[in-house]
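Pilot study result, target chain (262 residues):
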Amino acid sequence: MTPTHRIGDWTFDGVSLRHADGTERRLEDRAARTLAALCVRRGEVVSRDALLADVWQGRAVSANSVAVVIGDLRRALDEDAGEPVHLVTVARRGYRLNQESSVPREGTFQMFHSHWGPLAVAGLAVALVALAGWGLAPGSTPWPAVAVAPVRNETGEAGYDALSRALDTVVTNRLAQVTAVAVTASDTPPADGLTLTPRLILWNGAPELSLTATDAATGRVVWTAFAAGPAGDLAKVTAARLDGLDAQLRPQGWLERVFRRL
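Predicted structure:
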């Protein structure tokens, strides 16, 4: 009998995800096998190479194959790629299915209050003093700049070069419209900001834009998203996906960043 795994409000039976409300989503074979591999090693970081060996079994694939499947799984689980609860990317190491993914995420203040009670007030006071010293007042953005790398055509087809160039302008202009931080088209990471790396790939024969935002100071991936084709819709879908990065850049991230500095 195939074991089942609980992932938040979902149950995974090795083939499909079933929600507590009765919704069922059948997974593509590679996605199902990837999730099964993560379930078996739940709580552990599973490297990209380990997933390639287990799921693709030595077949030649693009460098983004695992990331694309993880993106599909997050969408199937209704996961916010900017703040994943179930499937977490561990920078430079791989991916982890959280042990306690069924536990609702707590906000920063609720977490401090529930675990430390009155100490939360003192901790927040210290943080506010630190903010004044660092010039990071509440309401400011945790990253002052975003460098947008050129869209790389990783489809293996030169016919998509023109689409890659067109998406360059879409990504940079849209991000500049939706954020309050400095946005530049550059391969050089800002000293204290984010680098957004867009890659054009093929998934099931259709073009898809992979978007990854990395903290330049720590190398930590803070946001990922995928904009799926067809090619004629890719610019519109990309612009919509970038709204998610705008949310990540908004002031709710300032306190988390302060406590990383303490």
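One observation from the pilot: Residues 15 and 40 are 14 Å apart (CA to CA). A full batch analysis is planned for the follow-on phase.
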